[in-house]
Amino acid sequence: MIFSDVIIIGGGPAGSSCAWKLRQNNIECLILDKQKFPRTKLCAGWITLQVINDLKIDVEDYPLSLMKFNKFHIHLYNKELKINVQQYAIRRHEFDHWLLKRCGVAVQTHEVKNIKKDGEYYVLDDQYYCNYLVAAGGTHCPVFRTFFRQINPRAKKSLIVTLEEEFPYNYQDGNCHLWFFHNKLPGYSWYVPKGNGYLNIGIGCYAGKLKAIKDNIKNQWKLFVQELEQRSLVINYHDNARGYIYYIRDSIDKVQIDKVYLIGDAAGLATKDMGEGIGPAVLSGLLAAEAIITGKPLSLRSVKKYSFPLYQTRIKLLIKYLFNM
Q1: Is the CB of residue 18 less than 8 Å from the CB of residue 105?
Q2: Cys-Cys crosslink for 316: which of 34, 122, 284, 308, Cβ 3.0 to 4.6 Å?
Q3: pTM score > 0.90 for this model?
Q4: Helix (H) and strand (E) counts for the chain?
Q5: What is the CATH class of 2-60+89-155+250-305?
Q6: Tell me: the pLDDT tens digits for 272-290?
């Protein structure tokens, strides 16, 4: 069997951020991911200044596509609002791979299926064992399933369903557009231009609320594409959208059991207003590493519940009111 002091399940931003900090402190770790990087990752794909600062990224030296947005164009009930922001659009298959390489730890392609405690060690598929185990494998993380599902059951009301696609496109409008509650969608839709001639379009919403109004995500997708075409934002679009699910931030009762740590989407940390997952994933990964380094209990209370800062409270409160959160 292969031993590492720390094994991290999942090589996305949560896992790679944790590994990056552990390596800086000379702690041995190994990342296991079921997919080989670079890999396709569905995501609107923008990062905040906090992510830039937390990961000490020099935007001038970032070698891949990066597109800065100073405003969000928000469409709400036939009105358009412009909100000042400082966000960067990234392509997840590039960004995640770059973070993984930068952390400088060993990575192996392996889908973990069975985890057990054997004395002081955690044993994975009778092939790997470790002292510390970090759950960074996203919504379907096997570590969450094994250790946390019974004590941290996910709330059905927090389930988000999405459809989206990222594709090469010669877009003419380089602004980021967001539609809230368009066609009664209990969520929002997005149009996110990216560097090197790529575009990401998508919709995300509360699954339970969509079902309650007797609608479905595929119908909402058709209506959204019609809106894009009417605005000439996308012309002659050939549908190849794919979907995924994740959970919006709810109560987090327990994120550590013995030497097992729960972070990122495995912990359900996406923000309540925008469903932003990258920032919470990065910070939770760094906090887990700090807990391992210091021996102190892991707390994720400092991970923000909302993406919008205080000066954008009006939008945050409106979303909170309409979602009854």
Answers
A1: no
A2: 308
A3: yes
A4: 8, 16
A5: alpha beta
A6: 888 999 999 999 999 999 9
